[in-house]
Model the fold of this input.
Amino acid sequence: ARERVLEWHDPDPRGLDAVGGLDLLKNWLVTRKSALSQRARAFGIPAPKGVMLVGVPGGGKSLTAKAVATAWGVPLLRLDLGALKSKWVGESEQNIRKALSVAENVAPCVLWIDEIEKALAGAQSESSGVSADALGSVLQWMQERTAPVFVVATANSVTSLPPERSEEHRVGKEC
Done:
């Protein structure tokens, strides 16, 4: 709250039972819960990176993000990429880096990036490059982070997101 870059959310107290369907995802989440622990990391088991949930509005994407935090017993942080944009050159990327740093300091946690396509939609066409730089910052952090921050990105449509194909932005299988 002090940094004003993330919003603390109360997870759904019903956990994964609140989510209808998505049985494969729910089973995967249950089996990967212990991989967030310090013991798992000491044993060399990597923390799960995250998931991207795509679907129509009202389909349960946000509910699933809240349920994951409950099921894993960790804090839920909501990142609004659009709110971090600034008119000053470089400030948007700095805000994003600050938010991701706060999430790492809170870890283990679930970082919910809600409606990611709205914040990053201009990454291909925007003349200033702010959305492209923001996307690059997020993808680089997702690839290189070591803190147990599980990302749940939600989108109504991915058609407006840029296709990141370069090796430097390619994200692991679990992202």
